[in-house]
Amino acid sequence: MPSRDSDISALTQGAMDLPRAPEARWLPGVPAVRLMLGRPLTHELYWLTLEGSLTRALQLRCMESFHVDVLREGYSRPSVEEALTLGIPSRQLAWIREVQLCGDGQPWVMARTVIPLDTLKGNGRRLRHLGRRPLGHFLFSQRRWHRGPFQIGIARATAPGQPTIGRRSRFFRGKDALLVGEYFLPNLLARTP
Ligand SMILES: C=C(O[C@@H]1C=C(C(=O)O)C=C[C@H]1O)C(=O)O
């Protein structure tokens, strides 16, 4: 895998062992779900098709606590495919945020968000200062943001604990957009949703 994020500072010690967004094959939601229907993937399907804020849904499943661990955050180049999806020049920097959403002390979801420079203007300035506050709170508390259709991503496992399944969508505010990828980790999928 190309080290496209080498210039994002890793914020957590031992970050090499932490989950990374895999290079997935992205398919539109409906064909991907059809492809998976023959497989015993009920938990995956539940999470892949859940509407509304994922943060909120995970918080509701916690017995004790929910928190966001920021793994990497900073200006970096998106992959060529991410840039095409967002309609931005492929060599243009973007603000890239990678986090783990953790329930009851365990990482459940790894998320990678690509925010183009234009989206960081105006009210979007706040996106660079989320810290441990979930992005979902920002996006779902503001009426101006709406979500586009989901794509489903399937990747090959590269190491135990690394995600192999995820979903991705763009959020839009007028002509500005951002891209949120959410990758489901094995210890979430092992639980009954
Ligand atoms: C988009 C949402 O925000 C969640 C929180 C994120 C963050 O804090 O970086 C990233 C992806 C999401 O799963 C959501 O809650 O649905």
Automatic annotation (TrEMBL):
Similarity remark: Belongs to the UbiC family.
Q: Which protein is depicted?
A: Probable chorismate pyruvate-lyase
The record's section on PANTHER family has: CHORISMATE PYRUVATE-LYASE
Which GO MF term does the entry hold, naming one? Answer: chorismate lyase activity
The alphabetized UniProt keywords are:
Cytoplasm, Lyase, Pyruvate, Ubiquinone biosynthesis
**Species in which this protein is naturally found:** Marinobacter nanhaiticus D15-8W
Q: Where in the cell is it found?
A: Cytoplasm
Give one GO biological process term. ubiquinone biosynthetic process
Catalytic activity reported: chorismate = 4-hydroxybenzoate + pyruvate
User: Got a GO cellular component term for this one?
Assistant: cytosol
Q: In which pathway does it act?
A: Cofactor biosynthesis; ubiquinone biosynthesis
Q: What is its EC number?
A: 4.1.3.40
Show the stretches that span the lipid bilayer. Answer: none
The question of whether Nucleotide-binding is a record keyword is answered with: no
Q: What does this protein do?
A: Removes the pyruvyl group from chorismate, with concomitant aromatization of the ring, to provide 4-hydroxybenzoate (4HB) for the ubiquinone pathway.
Question: Which Pfam families does the record cross-reference, listed alphabetically?
Answer: Chor_lyase
**Mainly localized where?**
cytoplasm
What InterPro entries does this protein's entry cite?
Chorismate--pyruvate_lyase, Chorismate_lyase_/UTRA_dom_sf
